[in-house]
Write a structure and sequence with these properties.
This protein is α+β, with helices and mostly antiparallel strands. The chain is built from 14 helices and 19 strands. It is elongated and about 105 Å long. The longest helix is centred in the middle third of the chain and has 28 residues. α3 packs parallel to α5, α3 crosses α6 and α7 packs across α12. β7 and β8 form a beta hairpin. The chain has three domains: 94 residues, Histidine kinase-like ATPase, C-terminal domain (Heat Shock Protein 90), CATH 3.30.565.10; 168 residues, Ribosomal Protein S5, domain 2 (2-Layer Sandwich), CATH 3.30.230.10; 166 residues, Rossmann fold, CATH 3.40.50.670. The protein has a five-stranded mixed beta sheet, with helices on both faces. Strands 13-12-14-15-19 form a five-stranded mixed beta sheet, sandwiched between helices.
């Protein structure tokens, strides 16, 4: 896409200079020797002029080009790069960086800037499929943080998998350090932003065949090859914190200060902001503000949502209809899942951020998953259950998450009506009442979904406290539940899932 492009090359140990040229995309001059070179010189010079045939304007974004070349010099210490702009600004800029990432990030701040740790923390991970170098520090006062990331020397201005993994590893390590040494005040729980607010970092990832989002390559979306990156970072940083306990305690103290400021601001904002101001438009909220009695039902589909709105007790029951199958969040980071509108709406409604340990702003005492009683509905219920288990674990531990069991069948026997949730209950009821399904006076109706139930039926079977069936979501102590959900939803466990379905799929149930 250049009107003219010339390449000049000098190589170490070779006393020759080489040149090759192109015009309008085709070779103008073959590779040739143009003279002698000093043995101490080496390097490549690329000179080009953009072709106006392909561009609306020939004006280059010189700042982006300067940033790119600067990044190359930082990530390749000792490599001298020179940018010569003769066409537009008539400037020549040289870049040469001799130190590592730790020296680079320290060079961004003057000696008066208060930072932790004083010499910055520098780390390195070497694996078969990737390697990572990083440098990180915390600013005590200024919040003008440097946060840069690269993949194979390519700047990733929008971050991606490597940045999310790095952030998660650092945050988890500092949290565990604070818990192990009992450093947190009684009423303070750290959320990710409390730890990350003052962070400056530079990370450089090298890997084979990285997958980027879009042509500009400014966001990494590779997952499988660096799936254990956050754990590697967590282990290394936690080890460093325990060896430098005094610095670690100061970092926790800084995070506690941020948490206390956040809590103070949230309390102030809560007093000034009405309950409805930032909530999703699809939410039909309740009128009560007493969190001890309020309930939120996450309902599958707009049709069922409409019936549920009519069936609910408006004083304390809120309804949020969900459209389609929710995102499988089991193997995603808490920051990434907010890209899903459904997940973001759920987070806003309940007042808790994914991955947060702080549930002080929880808006509902009970959060109830309400989906159809068929297999598709159970799939959606499983995805929502996984969302809360992985990203809202504090809510599960505190007993705020429930799964509603709507009926699958309505059974009319003469003048009496019964509702049952599955085939097993249907058979037991008929046997108990000494009737058969084809007897005269017996009518069995199977609901295809919640949308088929009128508001009165939905109120009687699923929403009324006197007659509904709710199962509280709890966790086992032996990690059995996480292993089961991992087998059900992990992309890596497809073969294991198939074997399980073949051997035990007939006994699968929500219990």
């Amino acid at each position: 896409m250049s009107e003219n492009l010339e390449v000049h090359v000098e190589r170490n140990g070779d006393d020759k200079k080489y040149q090759m040229s192109f015009k309008n995309g085709t070779m103008k001059g073959k590779l040739k020797i143009t003279g002698k070179s000093l043995k101490t010189r080496h390097g490549t010079c690329v000179a080009f002029k953009p072709n106006e045939k392909y561009f609306e304007t020939l004006s280059l974004n010189i700042k982006e080009l300067q940033h790119l070349i600067k990044a190359k010099s930082i990530l390749q210490p000792g490599l001298k790069l020179i940018l010569i702009d003769k066409l537009y600004n008539n400037i020549t800029t040289e870049y040469l960086h001799d130190g590592g990432l730790d020296k680079y990030i320290l060079s961004q701040y003057d000696n008066e800037e208060e930072i932790l740790p004083k010499e910055t923390h520098f780390g390195n991970i070497e694996q078969d499929s990737y390697s990572l170098d990083w440098s990180i520090l915390w600013l005590l006062e200024s919040f003008e943080c440097v946060q840069e990331s690269y993949v194979n020397l390519i700047p990733t201005s929008q971050g991606g998998t490597h940045v999310n993994s790095f952030r998660l590893g650092i945050i988890d390590a500092l949290r565990e350090f604070s818990d192990r040494h009992k450093l947190l005040p009684k009423n303070v729980k750290l959320v990710p932003e409390d730890i990350w607010k003052n962070v400056s970092f530079v990370i450089s990832l090298r890997m084979s065949n990285p997958q980027f989002a879009g042509q500009t390559k400014n966001k990494l979306q590779s997952n499988s090859s660096i799936s254990n990156l956050s754990l590697q970072i967590k282990d290394r940083f936690e080890l460093w914190l325990n060896k430098h306990r005094e610095t670690g305690e100061k970092l926790v103290e800084l995070a506690i200060q941020n948490a206390q400021k956040r809590i103070l601001m949230n309390n102030s904002a809560t007093k000034k902001t009405s309950r409805q101001s930032i909530l999703p438009s699809r939410l039909s909220d309740c009128s009560s503000k007493d969190v001890k009695i309020t309930e939120l039902f996450l309902v599958e589909g707009d049709s069922a949502g409409g019936s549920a709105k009519q069936a609910r007790d408006r004083t304390h029951q809120a309804i949020l209809p969900l459209r389609g199958k929710i995102l499988n969040t089991w193997e995603l980071s808490s920051s990434r899942i907010l890209e899903s509108k459904e997940v973001k709406d759920i987070s806003l409604c309940i007042g808790v951020e994914p991955g947060s340990h702080d549930i002080s702003n929880l808006r509902y005492n009970k959060i109830c998953i309400l989906s159809d009683a068929d297999s598709d509905g159970m799939h959606i219920a499983t995805l929502l259950t996984a969302l809360f288990l992985k990203h809202f674990k504090e809510l599960v531990s505190a007993g705020h998450i429930y799964v509603a069991k709507p009926p699958l069948y309505r059974i009319d026997i003469k003048k009496d009506t019964y509702y049952v949730v599955n085939d097993n209950e249907k058979d037991k009821l008929l046997k108990k009442l000494k009737f058969k399904e084809d007897d005269v006076g017996v009518s069995v109706t199977r609901f295809k979904g919640l949308g088929e139930m009128n508001p009165e039926q939905l109120r009687e079977t699923t929403l009324s406290k006197n007659t509904r069936k709710l199962i509280k979501l709890t966790m086992t102590n032996n990690n059995k539940d996480s292993s089961m959900v991992d087998m059900l939803l992990s992309k890596k466990k497809a073969s294991e899932r198939k074997d399980w379905l073949e051997s035990k799929g007939n006994i699968a149930q929500i219990d």
